[in-house]
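Escalated from tier 1: magnesium ion holo job.
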Amino acid sequence: MYKAKIFVNYKQSVLDPKAEVIKHTLHRLGQDNVQDVTVGKYFEVLLEGAHDAVAAQVDTLCDQMLANVNMESYRFTLEEVSQ
Amino acid sequence: MYKAKIFVNYKQSVLDPKAEVIKHTLHRLGQDNVQDVTVGKYFEVLLEGAHDAVAAQVDTLCDQMLANVNMESYRFTLEEVSQ
Amino acid sequence: MKAAVLTFPGSNCDADLLWAVQEIAGQEAALVSANTEDLTGFDLVLVPGGFSYGDYLRSGAIAKFAPVMGALKTFAANGGYVLGICNGFQILTEAGLLPGALQVNTSLEFICEPEPLIVANHQTAFSNQYAAGQTISLPIAHGEGNYYADPETLASIEAHQQVVFRYAENPNGSLNDIAGLTNEAGNVLGMMPHPERAVEALLGGTDGLGVFESLIAATKGAVHVAN
Amino acid sequence: MLQTEPTPEQIRDQKPYLQLGLTEAEYALFTKRLGRLPNYTEVGLQSGMWSEHCAYKYSKPILKTFWTKNERVLMGPGEGAGVIAIGEGKAVVFKAESHNHPSAVEPYEGAATGIGGIIRDIFSIGAKPVASLDSLAFGTRFDAHNQNLIDQVVAGIGGYGNAIGIPTVGGEIQFDASYQDNPLVNAMCVGVMDEKDIQRGQAAGVGNAIIYVGAKTGRDGINGASFASAQFSKEEDADRSAVQVGDPFMEKLLTDACLAVTQKHQKALVGMQDMGAAGLVSSSAEMASKAGFGMTLDLDLIPQREPGMTPFEIMLSESQERMLLCIRTGFEQEILDLFAGYDLDAVVCGRVEAGHQYRLLHHGAVVCDIPVGLLTDAVPTYTTTPKQPARLAHPAPDFTPTITDIDQTLRALLALPNIASKRSLFKRYDAQVQTNTVIAPGGDAGVIRVRGTHRALAMTADSNGRLLALDPEIGGAITVAEAARNLVATGAEPLGITDCLNYGDPSKPEVYYELQASAKGIVEATKVFNTPVISGNVSLYNETSGVGIHPTPMIGMVGLITDLDAITTVAFKQAGDVVFLVGATGDDYNGSSIQYLQNGAYAGRLTGFDLTQEKAIQDKMLKAIQAHLVNACHDLADGGLAAALVEMGTANRLGIKGSTALSAAQFFAETQGRFLAAVPPAQQAAFAAQMGKDAVVLGTVSDGEFVLDLADAKLDTTIADLAAIQEEALAWQLK
Ligand SMILES: Nc1ncnc2c1ncn2[C@@H]1O[C@H](COP(=O)(O)OP(=O)(O)O)[C@@H](O)[C@H]1O
Ligand SMILES: [Mg+2]
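Tier 2 regenerated the structure:
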């Protein structure tokens, strides 16, 4: 069994309205040491199967469903876990 | 300068409709080896300052803004980065 | 004209579209479940607004895996007319039938308001009943209608005059004020504003009728491929 | 875990039921009627069913005084929602519910699940939900906490309502210091159905199946869950949350599927009820008890989201988006198949039994075996000896404003949060989905047309806590009158009301007095307006540090329009129309916005309200609208004539040019029972004849100037200026 840890983020060229609002609020609250904020999604998926098959499956899952590659990029890690 | 990597997730007893729909869809598509899905948020925040002060600041930030502690839990790591 | 109105679990403007096409525009129309795999016999497929599958991951992201999507792609590839409104627009971009993507509004808030629009291209199957540059008012009702495409895609969209409607007062941050655009072939339109909500004077206006009348005109005498 | 639950004897000795909200006397009564010591599960069921929320221990004596029946009422209080006939074979179904406390704790989900809950009440009757309204009250200090609260409550209402596809067509948002720590979040839903399809929450017929459908049951919202886990479980609490998360997608499927059952499977359906407060136990016990039968449920069959749930937790969970149906034997598969078609989990989890026993099985053991009436009917009711609050015995002297600069005063008034436009908030609600909305939020009432008829329904939600604080009886009556006035202004005839009674701790004599007195005012007014109370909800204990909120009954009223051409809106339509002021203006300033503006508080007795006079004016106004004499109409309420005139001009930036014998102070008076009407010149004579001495000409609609000669002052400005203040003041303060 593998646990896939998946990170999905906006591509750098895409302006992220949520991140902008958080940064702006923090600055308004005087936290000027905050230089940058990014907001992304984090998925964990538990899958049965062999390492390489699972890796391919997760890659497709990210590309087709969990990320919209028009504006987002993704990366993931696989960890073997016991049931 | 530190980079805080922040993970926010629903607490276990809280219903997560997002995860339910994703899991259900994967099963419908025949990916029966998917055992479980969790959906969370992932933030990166870049901050100037000393380690301990930054850690305290990030903790407050999570507690007050990035997570809803009534139903979400959070964890974060700090990494020193060069500008 | 015979229209199919797709119904995904979570769609909530499907009945409104059916009403607009059937009762107001007087055309033949039927609700078609997203589990159907055949769109034979229709001249037009309407992809309605709502929150397909809850829109929990991203708007339209789960709908693109619905059984009907294969048939929809074939229908579009064969030149059939496809109109996606609001969530329908989001679904069409997620499915790759239209370029770009729809992000959360810059205000981060859902916005329900009548919105002035400029008809940027009145020579399409969806807009031929409007005058060039005409300003019309259609309601918007969305939280994620902020149109994004990367610079090359955007340049290509403009070069091919794919933008059909632009916001006169950009409410959501959309690049180039894009409120609605077609694919390069011109037979698939996605738009965030709701023409089906502006077809009766009793409900506040009839500026949306033009979209349906344009399609009626386009299907009359046009060549259809009903796979 | 089962083995960690206290034994019946331990319960008797250690009294854990006290933490579940039961008194010693209540426990003793239950034990005596049962004839043995109840086990932990049974005490848990008792605590849920005997709570104020389910049993109306304090409010039943008050609710009994309500007038609930007239010739049009098809179903009054007692079911998920009330039903009124609207002609052409159709009926309107409506109810309101409060979600004050959940929204204070977790604003987004609290508000969202409030909407979800009230929607289930409507379709459980067999009606298609066609519109929602929300009545919100917040504190006046806009600190970060309050701003977030307001933002998230509004987001939650929109997040649920927009997704499920029910237009939010009306409501109210008010601000008063009294709600700073006790916000009010009341939601109302309206449905439409064929009269013949009305169905009830009952489980009758020995052997008939009990079917559970919808979301799985989790440990959310369990009454006393904290107690249960702290005392008897070793589990880490950090990972536990009692917050309920709404799932509008699930509810949309549930709505469509349940309506398919009521409309197309009537032979199969015996009864249906939603799982609201006290979840599975309240829905199942009420269904059996109402029908006079017993019931057995097998808890192992209940779909569960978490492993290891105890019977206590399963029965008292308030997980959202769940329904319970009673289905005739032999039709089970037909109904299970129907739900499967909507991708919904449904299971047969029990049977109706002869007799009156309510039995629960868990892991092969009987964990509850009690007469069902013990849960539903044995609850004692309580009254408190009422005591008039001291503030009412000695009201402040009557207030009269001094207006030195009318222009300045008007501008300041328009910027008050209670007067300023709430559009920046309600524009976050989808008001038009279902394409029936004739009047969206922003009008006097929301109006939707009823498909398949020539009719429309008008609806409004009103509350006036600040007036009730000054006089609960008159304030209660005014709230009903104001709701009716709102409907009439759109051209509707009032049909009936639903209410949410939001009050403090009823065991306090002063609070009980407020409850009683306001009910008296409400009852009197509902009779005058022929608007029976067909449903409602009670929210007590709205207190922080011993201080209660203003007594705040929320009145949700629905009205009928039989001529779609007569529907009238607030906005001036064209320059040249004649503006009439309808109803007499007095020196009524106590409790008014001008008083608040100048004194920073509301005080004094309530003057200038006459129920009979109000009804007569409303009748005349309605006739004039129905005769198509009126181009625009608006009722006068907060901010009096001053605010109403600006509100009529805003949409089309049309002003007024006129003169009046009223003084500058009276321009701001809040005498009840008044309207403004814009009448086309061609109809002026007819309108004047119809209204007689009750209407006076104020002036004519102008292209933009806002000029009014008053007895002792002159206002000379433009509508553009005033509208901008009124439109932007609130959004600016909430940033
Ligand atoms: N203030 C009230 N006025 C009139 N009827 C009320 C009031 N409060 C409750 N009721 C009625 O009592 C019944 C039970 O209400 P309630 O327990 O709130 O319903 P639910 O089970 O949906 O929570 C309903 O028919 C409701 O309309
Ligand atoms: Mg109910």
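Residues 223-227 of chain C have pLDDT under 50 and may be disordered.
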